[in-house]
Amino acid sequence: MLEYKIAVIGLGYVGLPLAVEFAQKYPTIGFDISQSRVNEINSGFDQNHDVDDNYLKKIIQRLNFFSTTDINDILKCNIYIITVPTPIDKFKRPDLSHLIHASEMVGKILKKGDIVIYESTVYPGATEEDCVPILEKSSGLKYNHEFYCGYSPERMNPGDKEHSLNKIIKVTSGSNPQIAKIVDDLYKSIIIAGTHLAPSIKIAEAAKVIENAQRDINIAFINELAIIFNKLNIDTNAVLAAAKTKWNFLPFKPGLVGGHCIGVDPYYLSHKAQEVGYIPEIILAGRKLNDNMGIYIANQVIKLIIKKGIKVAGSRILILGITFKENCSDIRNSKVVDIKNELQEFGCNVDIYDPLANNDEVKSEFSFELLPLINSQIINSYNAIVIAVAHNEFSTLELKTSKNIVFDIRNIGFSSDVYLRS
Fold first, then answer.
1. What angle do CA 233, 237, 239 make, to 5 degrees?
2. pLDDT for 108-143, tens place per residue?
3. What architecture is domain 6-208?
4. Can you tell me the distance from the alpha carbon of 84 to that of 160, in angstroms, rounded to the nearest whole number?
5. CA-based angle 308:310:314, to the nearest 5?
6. Of 77, 131, 149, 261, which is the active-site residue?
7. Is 348 a catalytic residue?
8. Within a 13 Å sphere around the CA of 7, how many CA atoms are in the beta-carbon half?
9. Do the Cβ atoms of 422 and 388 come closer than 8 Å?
10. Quick one: fold of 292-422?
């Protein structure tokens, strides 16, 4: 292959930063099925704030980088990198519909010698067992003879400006040793931190899902400790501060586990495990505990409302934050919604404010709207305030903790006699 011509399929939190990075080295085109997303990127705006708008404009102007919804614009590419979402359905089963659609589309334009690289999180075996047959059928070409595949799992951390794309070691793999070297060299050319070439695609897939499954299990353990210590009237934060003085103690914190990775990837691994006849009890137990934390928190808030002598039905509760983590706009798999829904089951009137979340996305995904703005007078008019996300902006709020119930899930520093000991 004399010259790489790259198409990045899917321009979300993973795809756009990747496309911009590759565009500085190779002719690169971004592709997405959303015309509005393509329009905003081509105008030099990223609503996810993963790529600085001024920087994006410079890349577009200097390198002639552009995005498109027209498949004809990527016909001449020879490397297709697929970065579409792989969520779970309402039954918590892997949903590969986006991946299947992208594979069908790329298969229709696949040429001899082309390489398709997947970055989307999947269970071990999905690339070669689920995607490759689709590529073969759509293209009429034979795998590892006329076209090739690679897998390099994304490791993006939305909102994290320190651990940006090129500063995180990239796992790579290919469908044969020669292709694996090409894929590894390709990523090595843009990743400052370097790469790790895995022995096979399946190993690279497995590495991705266990990264997040491990974090999920560790957080579940700390969440369970927080529940136990709360019953014992012990400050979990103080316990963790003491425990982490040991050199090999892992400093995890309790809280809500949402987002597109930690709250989803374990289900991909457990699905594959059960497919081969093994019930992954630890993984599923961790998932169950973390999935129920929103309900647990809501019930703790209700207990505090009752203790305060406030009538539960009709009480006004403000939740600060709906994104799955602090200082980012990503609302995918937000567990804050679980708190809201449970509180409403008790008859509470619940509002949510988040300065970083997109209200249109929230309305589309969850069927309610965010408060447009707040001030100290508005905040302190509520019976209870739940600080669900540790956005930097929230730490400067003036809360009358002597008057209100303040349930500080993230323990961002409000002195109150009522907060999750976390």
1. 75
2. 999 999 999 999 999 999 999 999 999 999 999 999
3. 3-Layer(aba) Sandwich (3.40)
4. 20
5. 150
6. 261
7. no
8. 25
9. no
10. Rossmann fold (3.40.50)
